[in-house]
Amino acid sequence: MSAENKVFIYDTTLRDGSQAEGVTFSPVARIHVAKMLDSFGVDYIEGGYAASNPKDMAFFRDIKKENLQHAKIAAFGSTRRANVKVEEDKGTLALLEADTEVCTIFGKSWLLHVLEVLKTTPEENLAMIEDTCRFLKENGKEVIYDAEHFFDGYKDNAEYALQSLEAAVKGGADCLVLCDTNGGMLPNEVFDVTTLVRDKFGVSVGIHTHNDSETAVANAMESVRAGAVQVQGVINGFGERCGNCNLVSMVANINLKTDKTCLADPDQLKNLKSVSQFVNEQANLRDNQRAAFVGASAFAHKAGMHVDGVRKVSHSFEHVAPERVGNDRRILISELSGASNVMDKLIEMGLDNIDRKSPEVRDILETMEKQERSGYVYEAADASFKMLIKKVLKEHKSFFELEGYRVIVEKHGKNEPCTSEATLKLNVNGETAFTVGEGDGPVDALNMALRLALREFYPSIKDVHLADYRVSILDPEEATAAKTRVVIESSDGENTWGTVGVSENIIEASWEALVDGVEYKLFLNEEEH
C-alpha cells in the first residue's frame, strides 16, 4: 500500500455515513455516489456491512456491473464470533459472498469491550482477530484491520491494545487502522500513538476518527503527520452521533497544505464543492453553508476592511484560492460594509465607471444603512441589494405596477385542510392583468397569482420558482404587531438569487420580496439581450 507522499483515501460514506441520524441512501443513490467517488479519485469505497442487511449485499452485486476506473470496493465486517470456527462464522462467510477485492474487519482493542461487551477472554479475542485476518488473506483478499476503540484501549491497557494489532499482523493484515471510535481523543494523543504504532509494526497504518470532540479532521491530520498512509472518513463528515472525519476537508488539507497527495488526479480538487453537493443531494441533506472549503460562506467577506483587502490581494484574507476547490468568492452587504463592498457589487453589475469616492457610492451606503435600521438585511438578499442600487442610481425600471391584491385563507371544519386564494390586479405596460392564484398557503397563492399575471407579458417567468422562504420576527416584544422580515430564495434552474421584504404584515413583506425576485429575473433577461 505504501507510495512516497501518497495518502490513500478510504471512503465510508455508504456505510458509516449512512448511520447518521436522518440519512438514508436509496439503492440507486448508492451506485451514483460510488461512481462519483471513483471519478473523483478516492482509493477505497466501503459499500456496506456484508452481514448486516440485504440492501448492502445488493450493492455489492450491483456495483460489479459498473466499470469503475480507480477505486477498490471494500466489504465491511467483524472478526469471527467467540468460540466459533472462522470457516463456519456467518459474518466471515458473508464477506466472501460479497465478492469484493478488499475486506475490512473490525476487532476489539479495549479490554472493557472484550470482557463486558463480547463476554469472552482476552486470549480468545486475540485468536478471533488473527484467525479472521488469516482466513480472508488465504481467500485472496486485501485485508484492512480496523482496531475499534484503539486509543481508548491503549490508554486503558497499552500492552493489550498493541497485542491486538500484533494478532492482526500475524494473520496477514495489509493495513492497521487506528480507530477513535468514541471521538474523544486530542491531536497530540493521536500523533504520539500513531508514531509508536508506525515504528513498532512493519505494515501500513491508517486512521479512523469520529467528531464527538470536534477534532476528527485535526486528529486525522496529526495521524498523517505521524506516518499514517490511509485516512478513513465520510464526504461532508456526517455519520454516527456527531459524525466522522470530513473527507472534504481532509482532501483539501492534504493536497493544499502538505507535501502529500491523496487523489488519483490532483486536478480533481477543483470538483471538491460539486462532490460535496452531490453527496448531500443523494442523502437528502441541505448543504452546510459554513462548511470549510466548500460552503457558501467559506469565501464570503462582510467587513469593509476585509473586502478592501481581498480586492487588493486575495490571499490577504483567504487561506486558499476559492477556485482551487471549486468555490467562489462572495461579497456580503451589511451594516459592516464600506465603499469596497459597494464597489464590488457595482463592478459585478457592470457599473465599473463609478468612482468609490463619488456621491453615488455615498448615497448607496446611506440608503442601505437607513434600510437596515428598518430591519432589512442584504447578506442573503443579493438581488434586493442590486435592485436598491438601481433605484438610488435612478436606473430602476418598473416592469409592472400593483393596483391591488386580496388574500383569503379558509378552513371548513377542524379536520379539513386550510385553503388559500389570492386575487391580483396589475398594470403591465398599460394593460390590466387580473388573475386568481391558489396555493398551499397565502404566500404561495400570491406567488402563483403573480406568475399567472406576468406569464403572458414575460414568458421567462414560468421558469422561476421559490427555492426557500424564511421568516424572522424583528421585535418580538411587540407580539402580534411585531415587524416581520421575509427572505425568499428564487431560482430559474440555472441561477439562484435572494430577496428581502420587511413589514408589520407578513403578506406585505412577502409581496415585497416576491416583486424584487421577479424584477431581478427580468433585469437579468434584459442584460442578456
Q: Beta-sheet strand percentage?
A: 15-25%
Poorly predicted parts:
none
Q: Helix amount, in percent? A: 25-40%
CATH-assigned homologous superfamily of the largest domain: Aldolase class I
Shape: elongated
Q: Report the CATH architecture of the largest domain.
A: Alpha-Beta Barrel
Tell me the Rg in angstroms. Answer: 29 Å
Number of contiguous helices: 17
Mean pLDDT: 91
In total, the number of domains comes to: 3
Taking strands numbered 1, 2, ... along the chain, how are they ordered across the largest sheet? 1-2-3-4-5-6-7-8
Give the termini separation. 56 Å
Structural class determined from secondary elements: alpha/beta
Which CATH class of the largest domain?
Answer: Alpha Beta
CATH T-level fold name of the largest domain: TIM Barrel
Count of DSSP strands: 16
Features:
alpha/beta, 17 helices, 3-stranded antiparallel β-sheet, 8-stranded parallel β-barrel, TIM Barrel, 529 residues, Double Stranded RNA Binding Domain
Detailed description of the structure:
The protein has 529 residues and is of the alpha/beta class. The chain folds into 3 domains: 275 residues, Aldolase class I (TIM Barrel, Alpha-Beta Barrel); 74 residues, no CATH class; 128 residues, 2-Layer Sandwich (Double Stranded RNA Binding Domain). The chain has 17 helices and 16 strands. Strands 1-2-3-4-5-6-7-8 form an 8-stranded parallel barrel, surrounded by 9 helices.
What would a concise description of this structure say?
Helices cover 39% and strands 20% of the residues.
